[in-house]
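Re: the 490-residue chain
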Amino acid sequence: MLNINNLLLYILLFPLSGILVLIFIPSKEEHLLKIVALNSTFLSFFCSILIWFFFNKSFGSFQFVTKINWFPELNLSFTLGLDGISLFFLLLTTLLIPLCLLTSWNSVTTHLKEFLIAFLILEFFLIGAFCVLDLLLFYIFFESVLIPMFLIVGIWGSRDREILAAYYFFLYTLLGSVLMLLSIIYIYSQVGTTNYEVLLTFSFSELEQKFLWFTFFLAFASKVPMVPVHLWLPEAHVEAPTSGSVILAGVLLKLGTYGFIRFSLPLFPFASFFFTPLVYTVALIGIIYTSFTAIRQSDFKRIIAYTSIAHMNLVILGIFSFNTIGIEGAILQSLSHGFVASALFLVIGVVYDRYKTRLVQYYGGLASVMPLYIFIFLFFTLANISFPGTSSFVGEFLILIGSFQVNTTITFLGATSVVIGGAYSLWLFNRIAYGNIKTQYTTKFLDLSLREVVVFGPLLIGTLLVGVYPNFFLTSIHSSVNNLIELLYF
């Protein structure tokens, strides 16, 4: 009998059980390997849907709490729990991992067994990072994500620079987190525990908050990423396989925004207010610079990678608006970006699997030969520019309202991303969909297969559902965000 209170533990254990089964299956049994990996990820997704179904929307504290004594003599315990803030990050993770496996169903032919194990390990670490209620354990999961992602980019990358891109990704994000580990050790020495709920009751001095906040900022900013530690992202995206790009844009970037909401704001409220001008400045530079940079790119993936940076920096403005509307908008926009950016990388992957190039100049006129593909591309292009009725419109609208209540100038400058975003997104779509078919480069045209339609389906439904009926999601978030606001101001 399934114990509802242990659902989080089950979600965490299903990828591990999948790994154990995969280890004992011979590498030549490729179909069986795929089925086992896919089923284990679907089980995690099913349990996360059950959690959403049984989630108490009027209760702002942590639910489905599972506690295991880890090192009781050191006052360290393995505690899992989630609230409205982490709920949709968990759902996004457990949704995208099986979609990534379906995306790679036919495209990954070398070291398939190792590839599937790497993805299940990645899922385990991501779920742990979003659900663990201990600062030290969060850091372990937060950093451990780098290992499977490093292997996915470095081994199954698609071009000649995949090793360099993997090192870029690993070193940029790891070096940003070293000081965070020292800060966690300092926190443990002061409080005697790293249990998150205990830390919420502890008050650090203003000087301590400034130092600790800044070290956490370096770690989270490199994951978002924010300028100038953003250079690893376009490189990693270009070299990663399609499934790697999907999980990188869809979930890994959210570790940074989640870290700000979960740890920086409630643990160091004074420092969060103190450093707000710095955050606004860096975020605005990131929004405007990367939006203009996207326009001049010729590589399909680089364009979407730079747009991801712009969108995630806009999320930062919402988080640091310090009001309910802005923070709820930031969470909703993070979920929306997970749908839209993932779908756009899948759109790129469809033509790359067929024609083995991502350079925009080789494509044109696909609307007349791949109508279903172009329909999907158009839908997510409109979502990417925050077209009304899509999830991005709701997320960005709430962020801009929240930001407007704090600083109108910042809001105006942040809103330029919507205008510039329309320019590069529609220009890219126009070059791919219309004009002459470049038969000198592409001669065979094949529209979306059933498997590809199945992969796009949940992302399209999610984008529409958030855009048309956002309250379906906001009711689960509201109580937890109100609790966060109380911690900030009271």
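The radius of gyration is 22 Å.
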